[in-house]
Amino acid sequence: MRRTGTADHHTRASVTRVSLTVDFEPDCPPYLSSTFRGVEQGAPALLDLLDRRGVRATWFTTAEVAERYPAAVAAVVQAGHELGCHGVTHTAFDKLDERAAQWEIETSTEVLRTFAPVTSFRAPYLRFPEKYVPLLSAAGFTLDSSLAKYKRAYHRRREHAPLTRIPASVTSSVLRLPRAIRDPWLRALADPVVLFVHPWEFVDLRRERLRLDCRFRTGTFALNALREVIDLFVQRGAAFLPMRELMTASKTA
Ligand SMILES: [Zn+2]
């Protein structure tokens, strides 16, 4: 059954399409750019879970990860997931001038397209100035998931056809909240639901010197939580689709 309305209905029972997205990048701040435990240890555990549940996700990958860990990126593609683009250095685009922004987009695109066709983009930190959106179309992207429904920029967005913009529905740490808080929150999300996780969440970081939201309930707990979240949506009859298939589904709706 496919819904025929727009993407912004606020009814509880109507979610039929969910995209799980993975920001495939170095470990959380302040480790960013220096450690890759998520890529080395978290990603294999995540791939295994997704394989067991038959979920194909979209992995927004930095060129840095692709260059350091080509086998890990090839494994993602091999498993049938969509490869998306997440820039080169994981720098926030609102700190870049246009030339640097263009360099990030063109360089990451070039590197990632040696692994698979790449047509979906997400900016690091979900921060992407509207003035740079045309750079995405110019680089051949058809989908942008740099917006988040829970951030102010979402309400200031403009359409940039033919680019489709599909925001993230909730921040990643929500998935690790206690079930009694998390599940009602997730059940209230509108279709299509876009979830995201980071591979480092599946590494036990509880004793590291990190912000609370980067370390609480990481490791096995996070993996179990994600399994429960997948099952919650599947039990409601929703299908998990990579983002580019979500876009086709929303266009034909
Ligand atoms: Zn990121």
Short structural description:
With 253 residues, the chain is α/β, with parallel strands linked by helices. The chain has helices at 37-53, 63-68, 70-78, 98-112, 133-138, 179-187, 212-215, 220-235, 243-252; strands at 17-24, 58-61, 82-85, 120-121, 143-144, 164-165, 193-197, 239-240.
3D structure, described in words:
The chain has 253 residues and is an alpha/beta fold. It has one domain (19-252): Glycoside hydrolase/deacetylase (TIM Barrel, Alpha-Beta Barrel). The protein has helices at 37-53, 63-68, 70-78, 98-112, 133-138, 179-187, 212-215, 220-235, 243-252; strands spanning 17-24, 58-61, 82-85, 120-121, 143-144, 164-165, 193-197, 239-240. Strands 1, 2, 3, 7 and 8 form a five-stranded parallel beta sheet that branches. Strands 4-5-6 form a three-stranded parallel beta sheet, covered by helices on one side. β4 (120-121), α5 (133-138) and β5 (143-144) form a beta-alpha-beta unit. α6 (179-187) runs parallel beside α8. The termini are close together. Mean pLDDT is 90; it is low at 1-11. Residues 23, 25, 86, 90, 124 line the site of zinc ion.
Name the helix and strand elements from N-terminus to C-terminus, one letter apiece.
EHEHHEHEHEEHEHHEH
Number of strands: 8
Please identify the oligomeric state: single chain
Number of helices: 9
Q: Main sheet?
A: 5 strands, parallel
Number of domains: 1
Low-confidence stretches: 1-11
Per DSSP, what share of the residues sits in E-state strands of 2 or more residues? 5-15%
Taken from the alpha-carbon principal axes, the silhouette is globular
CATH superfamily: Glycoside hydrolase/deacetylase
Q: What share of residues is helical?
A: 25-40%
CATH class: Alpha Beta
Broad structural category: alpha/beta
| Whole-number mean pLDDT | 90
